[in-house]
Design a protein that fits this description.
By secondary structure, the protein is α+β, with helices and mostly antiparallel strands. About 25% of the residues lie in helices and about 30% in strands. The structure holds coenzyme A.
Length: about 190
């Protein structure tokens, strides 16, 4: 297990489209390299800020800098960040449980959403789960987070029930899960 939890090497993804003269109706992004890798010391503060603003708005903050930093140092957790140039534009946090990988946090900064960063982070989550021998991935989304739910559905996750008051009084969660196909697992 210890061996399988070794950190992944950094992956560099080139996302977006090259800027070129075209119809003004076409959404264009400059060509940018996104580097998804394990979080470094000091990254927890940025991830915690992103979580408070984009995931935990209106809730008692659960993903404090100290908690994320503790996860970064644990062998049964993994904290990933997506970096564009010098800045962190998103991140993910997973725990390796007995029978599944649990995604505790996934966030992409507002200006970087719908540019493939979330998908890249989830690719890295899936890679880590395969490496840990855990094909099942579970996660919770706030019941009112339609865009988050559409994102997970687009990645093949299916709803697996409602968890009442998961985020506190009046804040239910929708649980999603996905089992990575055996064909994908056999490559590892
Ligand atoms: C949900 C989130 C992580 C998605 O990250 P992202 O980088 O914007 O997503 P991607 O660009 O990789 O999208 C991949 C696919 O998911 C689907 N998708 C993503 N956002 C969507 C939205 N708002 N509505 C519908 N479908 C969406 C699309 O099919 C998309 O592919 P496409 O852009 O080619 O159509 C990001 O929007 C975010 O951080 N939101 C705020 C926090 C949050 O909701 N976190 C997750 C729940 S805890």
């Amino acid at each position: 297990m210890r061996e399988s939890l070794r950190l992944m090497g950094a992956r560099v993804y080139r996302i977006g489209r090259a800027t070129r003269p075209a119809e003004p109706t076409v959404r264009q992004w400059p060509m940018v390299s996104i580097d998804v890798h394990s979080a470094r010391k000091g990254d927890a503060a940025t991830l915690s800020r992103l979580s408070r603003r984009l995931v935990e708005a209106g809730l008692e903050p659960a993903w404090t800098e100290a908690r994320i930093e503790r996860c970064r140092q644990r062998e049964d957790s993994r904290v990933l960040v997506a970096r564009a140039g010098a800045g962190i534009v998103g991140g993910a946090l997973i725990d390796f449980e007995d029978e599944a990988t649990h995604l505790g946090l996934l966030v992409v900064d507002t200006a970087w959403q719908r540019r493939g960063v979330g998908r890249r982070l989830m690719d890295a989550v899936h890679d880590a789960s395969r490496a840990a021998g855990l094909p099942r991935i579970t996660l919770e989304v706030r019941i009112g987070n339609d865009s988050g739910q559409r994102f997970y559905a687009a990645l093949g996750y299916t709803p697996a029930g409602i968890i009442p008051r998961y985020y506190g009084p009046g804040e239910d969660a929708l649980r999603f899960e996905r089992i990575l196909p055996a064909a994908e697992l056999s490559r590892w």
